[in-house]
Amino acid sequence: MIPQLAWRAATQLSPRLATKAAYLWVLKGALAVWAYQRRLKRKELFPPFMFVALTNTCNLRCQGCWVEKEGTAHYLPEQDLDHLINSGKKRHAYYYTLLGGEPYMYKNIWDIFKRHPDCYFQTITNGMLFTEANVKRLKQAGNVTPLISIDGWKEQNDLRRGEGVFESADRGMERLKKAGIIFGIATTTTGKNMDEVMTDEYVQHFINKGAMYIWYYIYRPVGEHPHPEYCMSREQIIEMRKRLLRLRRKHPIVIIDTYWTAEGEAFCPAAMGLGFHVGPQGSIEPCPPLSFAREKLSDNGGDVFQTINNSEFLRGFQNFVKDRTKGCVILEHPQELMEFMRSHQVTDFSTRDAFTEYDASKPRHSHHLPGDEIPEDYWVYKLLKKNVFFGMGALG
């Protein structure tokens, strides 16, 4: 697998973009985790990575999406974003995942890439806006990797995302491949699509399209219309884990998850303080589906380190999760989670009534599988999990 992946990178990627990714993404990412580990020893709280929702606007209306797109349009003030990135640079944090809504509907996104050429940005996108002009802009920037959301073959994907989305995203991938841009696929695994997205044929399709990595997520029933019929059973999650290991050994593409450590134990990045989420109103939240916060980027004169490090809410959330599960409290303990949120007098930044939505949720299985842990069985991924993938090495 490794020689084939190296050959793909050497023959398909722009040498300039590959070199920048190796330095800004891989090397600086490892340094960010190292700095995070040092902060842990000092009992300081500041993540090496951040999710940043630039806007809640979107050109799609996907089933099961937690982002409210019908009300007031919000755009993260550029000053707030610069506060975050500049505070991060002082702590060796140079990697930011930009999402929305649809991040490419944020009119000044290209200025962000230019203002911070020493940072690396991942954009989680539906892939509908990769015109020839935008692909050219991405290549010129050189510090961006698009992560395109695809949730199965055409029928399943378009059932959730809308008619014609699969084919449109496919055309965008062809343009990205032609330009030699590093991009990946984000697939939400559901109870309906698991048997098709965790297959050789599915992975091979995106290898042929030029994707260098694929990132799997487990579906969470959140939002005004949560669609619980997409939820996965415990048996399906165990099968997903088994298939991940098999696919990793077979295909020349990096297969990522943020759910399990190298030892196969469940893992929550927010509970470890490895990554928090910033909403389009500048709210600092535990993770993307949890749009609750007490602090904003503009607090403390824009000193984001001070704001996060002194946050009783974010520190309390870590303890709340660790006392209950190694997995996802959204799935396992939704009512207790809302009690915790209310006890900290947080603000709901969803622009809906997220409290009521979570109160009505039914506890479900997450990736925490006590007694059924399956360790990584391939040395490459053992190494990557401990040192690169979302700072897994921070677990020790």
Could you characterize what this model shows?
The chain is of the alpha/beta class and 396 residues long. The protein has a single domain, classed as TIM Barrel, CATH 3.20.20.70. The chain has 16 helices and 12 strands. The strands form 2 sheets. The protein has a 10-stranded mixed sheet with strand order 7-6-5-4-3-2-1-8-9-11. Strands 10-12 form a two-stranded antiparallel ribbon. Mean pLDDT is 92; it is low at 391-396.
Shape: globular
Q: What is the third-level CATH name, the topology?
A: TIM Barrel
Return the string of H and E elements: HHEHEHEHEHHEHHEHEEEEEHHHHEHH
Largest sheet: 10 strands, mixed
As residue ranges, the low-confidence spans are: 391-396
End-to-end Cα distance, whole Å, is 27 Å
Please count the beta strands (DSSP E, at least 2 residues each). 12
- Domain tally: 1
- Nearest-integer average pLDDT: 92
Question: What layout of secondary structure does this protein have?
Answer:
Blueprint: H1 2-12, H2 15-41, E1 49-53, H3 78-89, E2 95-99, H4 109-115, E3 120-125, H5 132-141, E4 144-149, H6 154-161, H7 165-179, E5 184-189, H8 194-197, H9 200-209, E6 213-218, H10 234-250, E7 254-257, E8 275-278, E9 283-285, E10 292-293, E11 295-296, H11 304-309, H12 312-322, H13 329-332, H14 334-343, E12 347-348, H15 354-359, H16 379-387
Parallel strand pairs: 1-2, 1-8, 2-3, 3-4, 4-5, 5-6, 6-7
Antiparallel strand pairs: 8-9, 9-11, 10-12
